[in-house]
Each structure stands twice: as C-alpha cells, then as structure tokens.
Amino acid sequence: MKPGERILGVEGGGTKTAWVLVESAADAPGCKFRVIDQGKLPPSNFRLTTPEHLRAILGELPKQIDRAGVFLAGCATDEDRRSLKEICLEMWPNAKIATGSDRDSGLAAALDHGDGIVVNAGSGSSVTGRRGDRIERAGGWGHILGDAGGGYFLSIQALRLVLREHDLHHSEMQFTAKILHALSLNNFDELVRWVQTADKMEIAMLAPVVFETATGGDARMMEIIEEGARVLCEYTEAVASRLHLLAPKVVLIGGLFHRDSIYTHAYRRRLKKNLPDARVAVAERAPELGAAWLATEAGDHAAFHPRPSQNEIESLAAALTEQRNPRSENLEKMSAQQLVEVFVEEEKFVQEALRVAIGELTKAIEIVAESLRNGGRLFYVGAGSSGRIGVLDASEIPPTFGAPRDLGPAGITRLRRGYGGQADRGYRRPSSSHTRGRTRDIDWIDETESRDRDEGCPQYHQHRCHGRAGQSARQSDDRFAR
Questions:
Q1: In this structure, which topology does domain 6-112+288-295 adopt according to CATH?
Q2: Which of the chain's termini has less CB crowding within 10 Å, N or C?
C-alpha cells in the first residue's frame, strides 16, 4: 500500500450500512489512516438484500478510490464473497477489492491481528474468537434459526410476551403502550397486523423500546434482557473453551452494546461468574474502519527477506558479543581468588546493561504476561550458552511458578521436569547424581531449591551441598522470545 491511497471501508448489517473513506498516511500519528469522509446508508444484509438493491446502496458511495473493503452480514461462504466482489467491481472496476462477512471486519476493528473474542449484538448476534490462525464461531445463524441475544431476538420475545398476556389475562402491558406509541399505531389489533407483515430489521428496531421499558422497572422485560445476555455469555464461554483461552480479551461491538447500556452491564455481570478472568471492553473503533484496514491487505503479499549476504554474516561475526573478553583471557593462569574477583567484578557490567534496558525488559514482560493470559506459550530460541540458559530457565517455570507443564515448549526432558519443594521435604531428590549413580565424597551437588541446607539435603555434611536461587521468565503465546 502506498501513501496517499484512498481506501473505502464498508460494513453492512440488518439496521444500517456504515462507511468510511480514509487516506493512507505514513505520517499520521498512531495509525495508518486519515479519515476523509464517512456516513450511513440503508441496511445491506447480503442474505436479505436483493442484488439490485445492493447495487443501489453501493452506488451512493464515493467513486474515486484505490481500494475497497466491503464486509456484509450474511456474506459467509466463498461463493458469497465472489458474488459480492463481482458487484463491487462493477462499482469500482480499477480498485483492489476485499469482501467478506461483518464478522471479519469486526475482528479487525476490535483485535487487529491479535487473539481474543468479539461479541457482536446488533439486529442479529454472533460470537467470533481467534487464536493465531484458528477461528471459532458461535451463533449468527440468522433470525429464523438463531441470532439469540440480538435486537430481533429481544424484540420478538417481548412481542410474544405481549400476546401471551393478552391471551391469558386480556391485559395490556406497559410495553404494549410504548410499542404502539413508537410505531404510531392505535390499538392491539393494528399491532398484530404490523408484526405479521414486518421484516427482521423492522422488528429488531424495537429493541430500544425493550431497554427503555426494562430501565423503567418492568421485571419481565428485564428477564428478556438477562436471557439474551445469558445466551451470549454461553457462546463466549464455548468459544473460549475451544480456543483454550483462559483469560481472553472480549470486545463488545454492535448497536446494543453502548458503553453504559443496561445490556452491557448484564453481559459483564453474567460472564464474570463463569469466566472471571476475561477482560471485557466495548470496541473503540467502528467496524467500517476494520473493513478499510482489511482492504489495505487486498492484493498485497508478505515480503520475504533473502538469506544474509557474506558481508552481513561477517559483520555479525565481528559483533562485540562474539569476541573474547580481554579481562578474562588468562583464566587458566589465575588463582581461585583471582577467578572469583574477576567474576564478581564482571557482574557490575551486567547491572549497567540491565539498567539501560529497563524499558525493553518491562515491555517484554508485559507482552509475555498478556499472551499467557490468552492461553499462549513462550518459546526460547538460542544457541550455545544462550540456548542452554534458556533451557534451564524454562525448566524452572513449572516448579517455581506452578505453571502447567504443557504451556512450555516440549522436548526438554530432565531439565524441564524440575521438582519444586522436594528440598524442603528432604527426600527423593531428582538430581542427576542420584538418578545416575550414588554420589561420592568428592562430588558436589548444586542445590537450586533448598532454603535450609541441612533440611534440604540430608547428605549436606558429607557432600557440602550449596543452595542457589533462580529466576524465571513467564510464558507467552506462540511468539518467539530471544
């Protein structure tokens, strides 16, 4: 993508079609885009809108563009995407086109390329989760088969309750009066006739009346809202379970999830019971911006870096870390005390280097911790001494922090399977000296866990065991920490 390209992002659903026109700008602070124009058009659910009507809606959008991302509810299959792309090419024959479902633009707006779960509640509803390249979905089957928790679901449940109350008690609920006023109808019979001819979008538009009535103290309307939140929470928990996300980022999008809405609070409260570590937030970016962002990737390919040249390899070999330390060139000629003095003196350089890197270390820890909350792992990559230190560090994570062993990389056997707390109990020590043969009087055992030398190692007086404290790095998702 080149600076100055004009990109159109379109997200269509059952209540509206939102669009934004942006310009790619390398100098824009904190983002890739500069918003030029934006607006809203009539609904454009791909399944419920005829191709002629869809062409009319798209015909209202800006014409002079370089890229377009058009993501509509109901555009679920490869055939749907091809059909939508053909219509888009009629509108913008020279533009690069990306098409798909509103699930895709919602994920892009809410998570970028990150992991997490997006809960969409507008006229319909859907729950979509991602971890790496894996996508899991729940709901979103349309208003006839599903869409539980969406605006249509809430409205139709409320209308059915009105009919039930009329049949059982010939009484008129508070909700009935509010619906009649909202629709400019005069009586119950007119309401029934309206419902029989209304489409999905028209019924879904009554959801704000449901919320208003519940806020006014109608307990039965509140029960309908709680039921919608319960179903969406069930879907969220199912998606999190399939993706093995223990503390997922959950982003709420759609017209029903205003930042302080009664529905948002109901959902948060219910999810907290069964998924207490989930981090729930209302989306800060509109889905049409996600559509524009996905359009920037249309036709672009990842760049592969070639093998380093011989000059680059020689430059790496000349790096300071690959050179001998002049202060320790004569180790073999030093006395024991001189060796210790050199080692201790070198530690101050370590402290200075760590102090300079405090910012990078803090950022790395935050990234690793965030990834671990999302059910990820940490991979250590290194060669020589660095690799061996990484193996040792990884082996200490389970016994030191109580982390599950399957969160770390496989393949580390004895070092990876460390045992914590055995030193304090003073028996069955899993050290290599004990598992490979009995120790001798001239052997030394390097204690990594003992706090009390005599209690940690019964043979301390015989074998002069020494305690040593270790530190570990935490685990992240399938990223590589170097």
A1: Nucleotidyltransferase; domain 5 (3.30.420)
A2: C
